[in-house]
Amino acid sequence: MELTQVITSRRSIRKFKPQRVPRDVIRSILDLARWAPSAHNAQPWRLIVIDDYEVKGRLAVEIGKVWLSDMLKDGVSRDEAETLVKLRTWNRITKSPVVIIACLDTKDVRKFPDARRQKAEYLMAVQSVATYVQTLLLAAYDHELGACWLCTPLFCQSAVRKVLSLPETFEPQAMIIIGLPDEKPTPPQRKPLHEFLRLNRWPRPRT
């Protein structure tokens, strides 16, 4: 596909066909995404690819425990909370052929003595991981796969790190689920350009 078509027609896919995705295809997508830009060219992203059902199950259980606890604290009834965990955590993770956890390796973040610059460096590294994930999504779609970017790991970093035996320097930032799409979502609305463009006070286009 041409780049414009890839960008405008890609959708977030949460339902997949049960077929496996060949590992060489996933490797090709991950390799292509390496060309994403990163601050200082540090490339601080680290990827954990999971296609084993047992590992996906353990991950879903531990993530579900954290989310269930959070919802109960927020006043959600146990029945509703358990239903949501089953639908949005257990089913979503275990029924996705491939689950990728994108991490930030804090070892690659430059160190500064003052909080202001250290915060900026950390945010630059987070943004770098995000550019990798976005590039990965486009690469997956170009390979005729569906994918969805989920921020779930941010809310349960310790649980994810424990299940996957990750080093302490690995900060789970995102979860990407991938597979052959089994849905065709309606294109979501996008804000018109003039609503968020503030460059030299460009005038709103005439209608």
Any descriptors?
207 residues, alpha+beta, NADH Oxidase, four-stranded antiparallel beta sheet, 4 strands, 14% strand
- Strand order within the widest sheet? 1-2-4-3
Stretches with pLDDT under 50, minimum 5 residues: none
* Proportion of strand residues: 5-15%
Let me know the largest β-sheet: 4 strands, antiparallel
Q: How helical, in percent, are the residues?
A: 40-55%
CATH topology: NADH Oxidase
CATH architecture: 3-Layer(aba) Sandwich
Give the number of DSSP strands: 4
Global outline = globular
Span of the ends, CA to CA: 32 Å
Topology as a string of helices (H) and strands (E): HHEHHEHEHEH
Q: Which class in CATH terms? A: Alpha Beta
CATH homology superfamily name: NADH Oxidase
Number of helices: 7
In round numbers, the mean pLDDT is: 95
Question: Number of domains in the coordinates?
Answer: 1
Structural class: alpha+beta
Radius of gyration: 19 Å
